[in-house]
């Protein structure tokens, strides 16, 4: 396969509109000796000419209408193919939900980011099939990190609502004694993220899957707000683009963060919608991280009322229209981190 199938946004374009082009795996070696393996529509593995230092998964478009990260990743792939980015690490780049991108929707049948860690079993929706393929591909990718190389996964998203803190990260629950990493706070802060949300329990998200299954440093990175393709203000993503480029092209890009400048929250309540008459009790345009006084009614459904349990409890990802049983609201409270890993 020659580079015309990959350059100038062609990989994403063909993956979306002529996925059969990539029905068979194909490989391309660039003049700078970087190898690009096309594993499936929307999935490429990039191997540096030099010995790979880190194993980095960059995923985007797990929700099809979250376009800014898709545009960033596609541009990065173009730059890799053109040779203006020369990778020093092994990269698995994933464009998640291709049909949902074409429909301009979050998903076609169901939310793919609730289908990992085996939750895709017992069904055959397009999202379930894709989640299984993504799990298998990530497993094969990290299995090659036999020398104990650093494993990283940044799952890039944008949020439905405005947010008081425009860029924030959901850090998957670390139930295995691992501590959050100072180096990762540094990298994410360099991307423009100033707010971190520590999960309190396992989930079925993509970033939790990589974190729990492969001991990767995994993150859901919210880079801004959902907008259609072509309508993103790329100035707002300049720091994220530059830092992601530095991450893949420098041997060990390790900017430091000043922890006292970062906002850290922990999840206090995970409120799942159990009834069709689930309602939120704050305005539709209340941004993420709006906080409330103790006792304020936040959400209700027949048989249950959900209130702020403490002063300063803030809302994140409110969505009354999620499928029954799914998360309709997270509440978070400020916290501090006593100890970090390197
Ligand atoms: O803005 C929203 O309501 C959703 C944005 C989004 O897709 N967020 C992710 C977060 C995943 C996580 O908790 O790690 C999601 O809901 O899947
Ligand atoms: Zn998303």
TrEMBL record:
<comment type="similarity">
    <text>Belongs to the AspA/AstE family. Succinylglutamate desuccinylase subfamily.</text>
</comment>
<keyword id="KW-0479">Metal-binding</keyword>
<keyword id="KW-0378">Hydrolase</keyword>
<comment type="function">
    <text>Transforms N(2)-succinylglutamate into succinate and glutamate.</text>
</comment>
<dbReference type="GO" id="GO:0009017">
    <property type="term" value="F:succinylglutamate desuccinylase activity"/>
</dbReference>
<keyword id="KW-0862">Zinc</keyword>
<comment type="pathway">
    <text>Amino-acid degradation; L-arginine degradation via AST pathway; L-glutamate and succinate from L-arginine: step 5/5.</text>
</comment>
<dbReference type="InterPro" id="IPR050178">
    <property type="entry name" value="AspA/AstE_fam"/>
</dbReference>
<dbReference type="Pfam" id="PF04952">
    <property type="entry name" value="AstE_AspA_hybrid"/>
</dbReference>
<dbReference type="Pfam" id="PF24827">
    <property type="entry name" value="AstE_AspA_cat"/>
</dbReference>
<dbReference type="InterPro" id="IPR016681">
    <property type="entry name" value="SuccinylGlu_desuccinylase"/>
</dbReference>
<protein>
    <recommendedName>
        <fullName>Succinylglutamate desuccinylase</fullName>
        <ecNumber>3.5.1.96</ecNumber>
    </recommendedName>
</protein>
<feature type="domain" description="Succinylglutamate desuccinylase/Aspartoacylase catalytic">
    <location>
        <begin position="53"/>
        <end position="247"/>
    </location>
</feature>
<dbReference type="InterPro" id="IPR007036">
    <property type="entry name" value="Aste_AspA_hybrid_dom"/>
</dbReference>
<feature type="binding site">
    <location>
        <position position="66"/>
    </location>
    <ligand>
        <name>Zn(2+)</name>
    </ligand>
</feature>
<dbReference type="InterPro" id="IPR055438">
    <property type="entry name" value="AstE_AspA_cat"/>
</dbReference>
<feature type="domain" description="AstE/AspA barrel-sandwich hybrid">
    <location>
        <begin position="261"/>
        <end position="334"/>
    </location>
</feature>
<feature type="binding site">
    <location>
        <position position="157"/>
    </location>
    <ligand>
        <name>Zn(2+)</name>
    </ligand>
</feature>
<feature type="active site">
    <location>
        <position position="222"/>
    </location>
</feature>
<feature type="binding site">
    <location>
        <position position="63"/>
    </location>
    <ligand>
        <name>Zn(2+)</name>
    </ligand>
</feature>
<keyword id="KW-0056">Arginine metabolism</keyword>
